[in-house]
Write a structure and sequence with these properties.
This protein is of the alpha+beta class and 446 residues long. It has helices at 2-37, 104-145, 159-184, 189-257; strands spanning 42-44, 47-49, 51-73, 79-84, 91-92, 97-101, 259-261, 266-271, 278-279, 289-304, 316-321, 324-340, 346-354, 365-382, 387-389, 392-399, 402-414, 417-422, 429-431, 443-445. The strands form four sheets. The protein has a six-stranded antiparallel beta barrel with strand order 3-10-13-12-11-14. Strands 7-6-4-9 form a four-stranded antiparallel β-sheet.
């Protein structure tokens, strides 16, 4: 009997526990459904007023970004590559070493040409010494003959010839006088013979003096000829030395050319060099790298024919790319083509765009807005107030404590503000926080 009572009590307790559990679960489910079907009664948010600013007017065009400068780098000489100091995407400074070629042959040629220069300079010194020796010989010969440097080599002007000629002239006179006296019998025949012998002796001395002078003149002229030959030898040696120095400079340049430097600062967009490869500048495509400068980019804009009158050098532009849809980049129109593209009927206009952050890349497509000179009043709101829903942009106007959903048409970005071309009026309050939690008609608390 007691056992049956205990069994009844156990069944009752077990049943009550199951009922409590089921009742609790059902209550929790009911509360959860109530939360889903009854969203919060209000959303916390902050607001900002739509303002009107005078914004420049613009027209839109399309274009492509290009590098400000691009160069293919190739070696000036052929050789085996021993070092490569760059890769695709590397930033290189102007003048930095890109590749190094084997320079052993060039250094051997340099040593050979330097030795040739030494030999040529030695020949120059020897020839110059021969010139000085020939000049000294001329001076000595002139001194023996009593000639001053630069005087004319006339035999009759030599001192010995002049002296003997004077004595001969006097002897001729004395002989003539003796001849007349002999005819009159006033002198003896012996005196006449003495005068005649003296005259004949002086004639012989004059001939000898002239012969000696002629030999001296010949010696001087020979020495002068030697000077000329020595000077010619000096010039020849100097020419040989100059040619050797030119070969040295060429050999030094050949060594320098084995190092290939970056001609501009920029990023490497293409690499075509590997260690151990032999490269020749005579090959059809001998480039080892392509470097592009991207600190300033060129925006090549296709301006429609109907808008070409609205473009001039110095105008400002703004551009947007699909890579950065929420950011605007600025530039200045710098070049305008003189003619239209005959196929597309568009005018090519170039603008320079600063790219110090390196976000923009050559080859990117962009939508460009070219600023006009006359500004227009434009409604502007914070960018944070715009909620993107696919291709639709929405904002929430806060009015009388409730959020009102508006479909808007946006325009240009200006810092943290965005142009609203349609959908919001000046001084209306727009929600700028917790925008993702808002919906049309929900109560808001600021």
């Amino acid at each position: 009997m007691k056992a049956n009572i205990f069994l009844i009590y156990a069944i009752l307790i077990w049943s009550s526990l199951i009922f409590s559990a089921c009742g609790g679960s059902k209550a929790e489910t009911t509360n959860a459904n109530a939360n889903v079907n009854n969203p919060p009664t209000f959303v916390e948010t902050t607001t900002a007023q739509a303002i009107v600013q005078n914004m420049p007017t613009y027209f839109e065009a399309t274009g492509t970004l290009a590098s400000d400068a691009q160069t293919d780098v190739a070696p000036a000489v052929g050789g085996k590559i021993t070092a490569v100091n760059f890769d695709i995407g590397s930033y290189v400074q102007k003048g930095s070493v890109l590749i190094q070629l084997d320079d052993r042959d060039a250094r051997i040629r340099l040593e050979q040409t330097q030795a040739q220069v030494g030999q040529a300079e030695s020949s120059v010194r020897q020839a110059e010494a021969q010139v000085e020796a020939a000049r000294a010989n001329v001076r000595q010969t002139q001194a023996r003959l009593g000639l001053t440097e630069g005087s004319a080599f006339d035999i009759e002007t030599f001192s010995q010839v002049r002296s003997t000629q004077a004595q001969l002239n006097l002897a001729e006179k004395e002989l003539g006088r003796a001849e007349r006296l002999l005819e009159t019998g006033d002198i003896a025949r012996t005196i006449y013979d003495q005068r005649k012998a003296q005259r004949d002796q002086l004639r012989a001395q004059l001939d000898e003096a002239r012969s000696t002078a002629a030999v001296a003149v010949a010696a001087i002229r020979t020495a002068q000829s030697q000077i000329g030959n020595a000077l010619a030898a000096v010039n020849t040696a100097r020419s040989a030395a100059d040619a050797a120095r030119t070969q040295v400079a060429s050999a030094q340049k050949a060594i320098t050319d084995t190092t290939v430097y970056a001609p501009i600062s920029g990023y490497v967009s293409e690499r075509a060099a590997d260690v151990g490869e032999f490269i020749s500048p005579s090959a059809p495509n001998a480039k080892v790298a392509t470097i592009v400068r991207t600190s300033v980019l060129r925006m090549r804009i296709d301006v429609p024919e109907q808008s070409i009158g609205q473009v001039k050098i110095g105008q400002g532009i703004s551009l947007q790319t699909s890579a950065f849809p929420d950011r605007s980049f600025s530039g200045i129109v710098t070049r305008i083509a003189p003619n239209l593209n005959a196929t597309s009927r568009t005018l090519i206009v170039e603008a320079e765009v600063e790219n110090s952050e390196g976000l923009l890349k050559p080859g990117q497509f962009a939508t460009v807005r070219i600023t006009q000179s006359t500004p227009k009043p434009t409604v502007m709101i914070p960018v944070a107030a715009v909620k993107a829903d696919g291709e639709t942009n929405k904002v929430f106007i806060v009015k009388d404590g409730r959020a009102e959903e508006r479909i808007v048409k946006t325009g240009v970005l200006e810092n943290n503000l965005i142009e609203i071309q349609q959908g919001v009026q000046e001084n209306e309050s727009v929600a700028v926080s917790n925008v993702g939690q808002l919906y049309d008609g929900v109560q808001v608390r600021q």
